[in-house]
Amino acid sequence: MAPHDNRRPFKRAAISDQQKRRELSLLRQAQNRRDAQQQARCLASSILSLQSAAPESQPEQSDIELETVPEAEQESEAFSKDLDVRQASKLRGPEVRKWFARQLMLPEWMIDVPDRLAQDWYVFARPAGKRCFVVSSNGTTVSRQRNGSILHHFPSALPAGAKIRDGSGSAQSYCILDCIFHELDQTYYVIDMVCWNGYSLYDCTAEFRFYWLNSKLEESGACNAPSHYHKFRFSAVPVYNCDQSGLHAAYTGVVPYAKDGLLFYNKHALYQTGNTPLALVWKDENCSQFVIDTDGKGEIPSQQQVVLELQDDRKLVTSDDPPVLFGCLDGDIIEKSGLHTGNLLRFAIGDGGLSFVDGKLEKADLIYLGKSNRARAFADSYSKGFQLKSL
Amino acid sequence: MEVTQVLFNAQSIDGTVRKNAEESLKQFQEQNLPGFLLSLSGELANEEKPIETRKLAGLILKNALDAKEQHRKFELVQRWLSLDATGKSQIKACLLQTLSSPVFDAHSTTSQVIAKVAGIELPQKQWPELIGSLLSNVHQIPAYAKQATLETLGYLCEEVSPDVIDQDQVNKILTAVVQGMSASEGNIDVRLAATRALYNALGFAQANFSNDMERDYIMRVVCEATLSPEVRIRQAAFECLVSISSTYYEKLTPYIQDIFNITSKAVREDEEPVALQAIEFWSSICDEEIDILEEYGGEFTGDSDVPCFYFIKKALPALVPMLLETLLKQEEDQDQDEGAWNIAMAGGTCLGLVAQTVGDDIVPLVVPFVEENITKPDWRQREAATYAFGSILDGPSPENLIPLVNVALTFMLSALTKDPNSHVKDTTAWALGRIFEFLLGSAVDLPIITQANCQQIVTVLLQSMKDTPNVAEKACGALYFLAQGYEGEGEPSPLTPFFQEIVQSLLTVTHREDVGDSRLRTAAYETLNEVVRCSTVETAPLVLQLVPVIMMELHNTLEGQKLSSDEREKQSELQGLLCGCLQVIIQKLGASEPTKYVFMQYADQIMGLFLRVFACRSATVHEEAMLAIGALAYATGADFAKYMPEFYRYLEMGLQNFEEYQVCAVTVGVVGDISRALEEKIVPYCDGIMTQLLKNLSSNQLHRSVKPPIFSCFGDIALAVGEYFEKYLMWAMSALQSAADLSTHIAGDDELVEYTNSLRNGILEAYSGIFQGFKNSPKTQLLIPYAPHILQFLDGIYMEKDMDDMVMKTAIGVLGDLADTLGNHASSMIQQSVSSKDFLNECLSSEDLLVKESAQWAKLAISRAISV
Q: A10 to chain B nearest CA, in Å?
């Protein structure tokens, strides 16, 4: 006797795992489809917000009420992820420093050799100079240093970088390049490409970004000698695979710029803002003239220095996430010097140096020197302290 | 043609003779359909002909009018309608004549054929005299002809929908049927035929059930029939009551007391087929009240069309004891029989439904029964007590149940290991599973599982997996729900320490010698899947270790040679389980970067195994392997390109599988996965894929549920290949346009509304993908001609006001994509559309975050398009 048509035998398996597998697959596919669409739209929204943030140049007349995206509505990830460079440029003072500091990918100091170095990593000689973001949009190019201050405001051959192009496309496009400005030959060495011609490369692997950088930069004419509409020369840096010969080439090879250490980039890593272990820096006396800190006149101070952030419980921490505790500040120093939470303080590392137990910092002999330069946006990272110790 | 001889030969035991006969029948049908049908109906009508050939003639006639497959059925209907009217009336005359044949096989087959013809003709307003001529002499004809006439009316009501027959004729049908049912009808066969006919005719009786006198009369006759001395009539009468309970729930108040008396007598005293229907009556009332109360609880409070009369709540004090009694009527070994269905099972099922209907009220009525019987020496009492307890776990509030469960748990764990009766252990394991299914993770401060008892629970369940197959299967099921209870919890799962042990035990179960004949192996793998799905980051290394183990199992299934068809089926089933398990593992490990990275070392080997699984079959594609490949493609990304040359043929095979439409649907989903993984690298395969997808869309053989995903898949491909999609644009757009036209207006039931919304969603996802794919390409202007229609479509579905949130979100997104890609080319069109104003504003103020987000995006894109 069979049960009634709609009656499931009560004690039989209640679930069909196969049906569940199908449904979960469909859910995953729907999610992936949403992500893909979102990504496609995101590329656009970063361009759109560039435009809508410049209403003065484009008077809006339409039936539909227009507005720039209010800050509150930018909470959704889709809108806030891509940076809105133009809006950020309007920020002032510490705000702007903080904002730009957050946008760069910052290497950790190399304190051990990563697995699969030869297969998964690139190496290149870091040009000595000022790390900055170069942004071209709306017919002009601006370079900003790590702390957000403007280095140059100039015309360039980058897409949308000068007001000479008549193509309507250039108004909608923009570029963001991660560069080092090399004083000696007045050249921007491009070490990474974040956006090119409106195309966001944040979610692309280093492998792809470097490939894109090498093919597109040359094409644009930005590598040409300076001219009236192209004030500074741009140049890519030679990037090598991290095998024996690549390392050798990067370490000893002749480049047109002064070297300041070696940068290691994991090929599979996306452009991730802030400190990341997927980009590493190495410095020693052979590949960097700045292996140890120098003062403003290029002289080596008697003691190595480190900049730490003061927290409200008087603790001194690095810029790492999570921050690493380096020490604690006496209450009287804080009072005497009028220090506040969040201040960046400069310390010398005393003769006691840093002692490590099981790879963890146990004790640091820190000597308080004073507040750090106002232009500093954040503290040093733990790995800097570590490398200092290993020297 | 001498049709009698051919029909004889078609039943010959000699294969060659039979085949020749079938062949000539087929030729006859193809070359001269009217002649063929007329010969058959002549054969059927001819009292001189042998029974065998008349019966077969009737059967072939029936099959020439109807088929299971939708498209074939449509074809047959069209062919019948196109036949010459004279021929058809000759056939119909033969059929009506045969209805009064004294030969049972002849008239009983004929009644079905007449119903099929009626099913085709009545909706076309043809054969208007049929019902009149059937009823004209129903009182004067011999009993066998009366029986045939009533059967014909029953089949006819099954074939045609109520709106086709006017009320006057309905009244005549019902009068004839109810008279045939009444106690005054002396012939059992006639009364039975009438009772069965009423079952089908009930749907036509809306008007009659609204009339108190007519309804009283029908109800009285039905209730009387439940007391007939003939068991088949009693069963048929209770079937009528079951049908009335769902169709005319709101009319039952005056009769419910009588029905309770009748049913409870039947449940206690009548033969099983009758008792089962009597129980089913109350299960069906539960279904109704659960639905009504659910609607009350929802946002339409008080708006429900049908009020709840709380029949179950009112009957509770008498109903529950009656059901508890049934639980003691178990059959020996019912747990070993997959298809078993008896009074005890039906009673327990009904008890579970009653618990869902009334909630807490059932608890005090059941607990004394449990307490009294759970320790009795007779296994039937212990089993019934456990079953009763397990049955009421879904419905009452956790606050009410958890204190009971906490008391019962230790006892149950001990019963599961120590009870001497396998039946009791089976039910105990099942009841534990129900505890975990319904009461874990409920928002109550009293946890059922604690650090203290977790170890014991796991140990007992793993121990029970070594018990008889049915007990072990239930233990697996309990573990499934135990694992599920900790899915997605932030805190570490209490199962984490036992992960290794659990996995090991489940794998051991899959290798039991006696695993083959039950569902046990399936249950073990499904539980393993759930354990993996619900595992936490701490156990990720152990999940990784599972990969080569399952791969080896799959590899072993591929080594067997020269299998019998039975063995091949078993092999395929096992491969399905293993591919399913790998799919779950891939999806789990692929979801986080560090585990994905380590997992990828197995990708080549796993893909190799999947390809070999495909190669085991010649014509079909293994659905589970296909699903697993989708997960793998997602995890692998662009590197998946290296598998494409070998994999492509199976992908195509999957897309061509109309018969098993689930396989086709799964394959369509995988095409989406692969598009996202490969992006422009999918281009070399696009011609083949797009051709097949377009073919599928235009086919009326493919199950309609596959069509919406095909449209979504267009979007996936377009987004992946960008302007290269130009090649297919015209075809895709024309398919989208005609589907869009069809899906703007819906008139139909909930199911159709739901389907139409899924179709709209697919269409809209396709548009989104195409617009975003063409963005920033010089070929953008190719899309401009399609924009007006798309905006019209958006406006159209907005005006219909019947889209769900999902469609709303996708639709407003398309508006944004259109503006984003076409820019100022579309600005005036956009500004003229309703969508860009009312619809957009409605979405901007939506409560649904996804809708709102899409709307914000659309607003931004539009503002740019019209400002440039």
A: 5
